[in-house]
Design goal:
Rossmann fold, alpha/beta, 20 helices, 8-stranded mixed β-sheet, globular, 9% strand, single chain
Length: 445
């Protein structure tokens, strides 16, 4: 029997959806599954079509000692049982504050229910067969005594992760908690892996977050930590509106929309959790490539957009493509711009991401300083260098006309007027206003 806690202290990442649909997929495959709702919001209870306000024993009565698993469980499908929650569960932490060993109450109840360590009299002294193949626990989005009960009762942890930067930051805090529980209370606790939920393969941010998580777990491979054998599951759960609609009908995705992408993804994920070796290797590699890199390959002789989204790509198009840009080239430019923005945002948040090289400047292209000089010549605007801590000062139109006329004349009287004007500007400094310059110029005229 495998005991799995589905946990992430960040809310809205897909814990309840993953628990219900993975459990339903395993039950449909013939495995006996028990699901336990540890969240006072009772979302898993609602998702399975159970009424959290009904006066039936649940997880609250189990933790407070007034009920057992045999009395609290409800059969919700073939090979599928569930223990519901209610709003009363929110008071359990306060009521259990003075109870010794409150973190291991659920573990003791499970051991007693499945008969761990007991012998079956009808099997000639052999160990009793567990009643379930899987026990899935939907933990609340907090690190409370309810979450600790789930971690202490579990053998494995599955972490649903939304491919966003804040969810990635919360992953580090969660791993610290798991490590602490493993050292002090449950030495057998391990992290099975991370499930990417609400995945959008068209965003660069999703690929970077997944790559950060994968590289982190790869670097810890073989280390003496609970996540030493963890991985990012190759099956990513794509965004699918059917997954959001199914809880309102009290059904799993397999009963509500069996042909949807959500049903296909969770069916594959359940297979990967049960036996990763049963999945074809090329399929897993293809899923990783499509989900993480979000790049298009060459198909049916059409040009690929892989070069357009590659960091640092300047652009190599044929003459025909330059004359009439195709949709793929326009999409490639947008993808490259979005990739730069995303990279800056991720790096500013101290996330681990690959360096993106800047595209090389085009040859013979004017620098910003050269462009400012050309603009100054065409408009008559005077720009001072920022190295001298001076700022750009614009001269009014009458002053530009006077300066233009003075610069074109070559007579001795014009040169004297110009030198007198320059001497007047030097004494006044950069702070001389435009009106004073205009008055001085008109007086000399």
């Amino acid at each position: 029997m495998r005991r799995i806690a589905v946990i992430n202290q960040k809310g809205g990442v897909g814990k309840t959806t993953t628990t219900v649909n993975v459990g339903s997929a395993l039950a449909r495959a013939g495995h006996r599954v028990l699901m336990i709702d540890l969240d006072p919001q009772a979302h898993m209870t609602l998702h399975l079509g159970m009424d959290p306000t009904a006066r039936r024993p649940g997880i609250y009565e189990m933790l407070t000692g007034s009920s057992t698993i045999a009395k609290a469980r409800v059969r919700v499908g073939n090979n599928l049982w569930a223990i519901g929650a209610s709003i009363d569960l929110a008071a359990a932490e306060v009521e259990l504050v003075s109870v010794v060993g409150r973190e291991v109450i659920l573990r003791d109840l499970l051991d007693q229910h499945v008969g761990v360590g007991l012998l079956d009299n009808s099997s000639n002294g052999k160990a009793r067969t567990p009643q379930y193949d899987y026990v899935l626990m939907d933990c609340p989005p907090s690190l409370s005594v309810l979450t600790l009960n789930g971690l202490c009762a579990a053998q494995e942890v599955i972490i649903p992760l939304q491919p966003h930067y804040l969810a990635l930051q919360g992953l580090g805090k969660l791993l610290e908690t798991i490590s602490l529980v493993g050292k002090r209370i449950n030495p057998s606790l391990t992290v099975a892996g991370v499930v990417i939920c609400m995945h959008d393969a068209g965003t660069k941010l999703a690929g970077e977050v997944i790559e950060d998580a994968r590289s982190f777990f790869d670097s810890a491979r073989g280390a003496n930590v609970p996540w030493g054998s963890a991985r990012v599951f190759g099956t990513a759960i794509r965004r699918n509106i059917k997954l959001a609609e199914s809880p309102s009908y009290g059904k799993s995705i397999f009963d509500y929309a069996p042909d949807s992408n959500g049903a296909k993804d969770y069916a594959t994920l359940a297979i990967e959790i049960h036996d990763p070796a049963s999945l074809p290797s090329p399929v897993r590699e293809k899923k990783n490539t499509d989900a993480d890199d979000a790049t298009l390959t060459k198909q049916d002789g059409k040009p690929s957009t892989e070069e357009s989204v590659t960091p640092g790509y300047v652009g190599r198009q044929s003459s025909k493509a330059k004359k009439s840009p195709t949709r793929s080239s326009r999409d490639g430019k947008k993808s490259k711009a979005n990739a730069k923005k995303t990279h800056r945002s991720v790096r500013s948040g101290k996330a681990i991401a690959s360096d993106i090289s800047k595209p090389a400047p085009k040859p013979n292209s004017p620098t910003p300083k050269t462009r400012s000089r050309q603009r100054a010549r065409s408009t008559g605007t005077t720009e001072l260098s920022r190295e001298d801590n001076s700022y750009v000062s614009s001269v009014s139109k009458p002053m530009r006309l006077v300066e233009s006329s003075l610069s074109t004349e070559e007579s001795a009287s014009s040169e004297e007027s110009a030198s007198a004007m320059e001497s007047g500007l030097e004494t006044s400094g950069p702070s001389v206003s435009t009106g004073d310059k205009t008055a001085a110029a008109s007086g000399m005229g």
